[in-house]
Amino acid sequence: MADTFTGWLRERSEPDWTAVITHPFTRALFDGLVPTESMRSYLVQDYQFVDDFLALLGSALAKADRYASRLAIAGSIAVVTSEENTYFQRAFDALGVGEADRISPRLHDATVTFRELMNDTNARGSYAEVLTVLVVAEWSYLEWAVRAPATLPENFVHAEWITLHNNPEFRRWVDWLCGELDRVGADLDERDRARCLRLFQEATRCERDFFDAHWSG
Ligand SMILES: Cc1ncc(CN)c(N)n1
What we know:
- The chain is mostly helical.
- It has a single domain, classed as Heme oxygenase-like (Heme Oxygenase, Chain A, Up-down Bundle), CATH 1.20.910.
- 76% of the residues lie in helices and 0% in strands.
- Helix 4 runs parallel beside helix 7 and helix 5 runs antiparallel to helix 9.
- The structure holds 5-(aminomethyl)-2-methylpyrimidin-4-amine (NSP).
- The site of 5-(aminomethyl)-2-methylpyrimidin-4-amine has 9 residues, from helix 4, helix 8 and helix 11.
């Protein structure tokens, strides 16, 4: 039985949670064996995900109940808009992704559904609800990435996608994010806790569908 709010949310989001963090796409990534076309389409779609994800971070920044929280969220915004954005541009160059696919590619259903969830939460969600979607996106990515072996694939497109999600700074951010949702969650009534649970489950499903959309193995 989980003793934190985030642990409780996660426990109730199985089997999707485990399906995400052990997804065959990630296991192939560890071996550098994601086919180039799958990696290309995954990153092209993920760049569109990141656009709304960044807006959701902005929503968290605006809705946070204290300055210290805004500072922590601003730190993550800085990473998404610098190291992560630079990675996407270098990966797109390496994969030969043209301008149109960087800016407005045809979206997969999985991308559309995930973007809608983030946009709705951005527009109507409480701080706790915004944190819930952020926690799923970041915690699940940390959890698959920490499963990587010590020896990384040679291709930087694969290797850096792993290290962007398991480096010490990212671990600290995810720890903070989970702790923040635990803190805010402690004051929620049963109805609001149930809303967070529904969102956590929906977001976890979106993560699973997102990987599935780029994996046919
Ligand atoms: C679909 C998805 N989920 C989560 C992450 C990690 N920010 C990501 N880049 N893409």
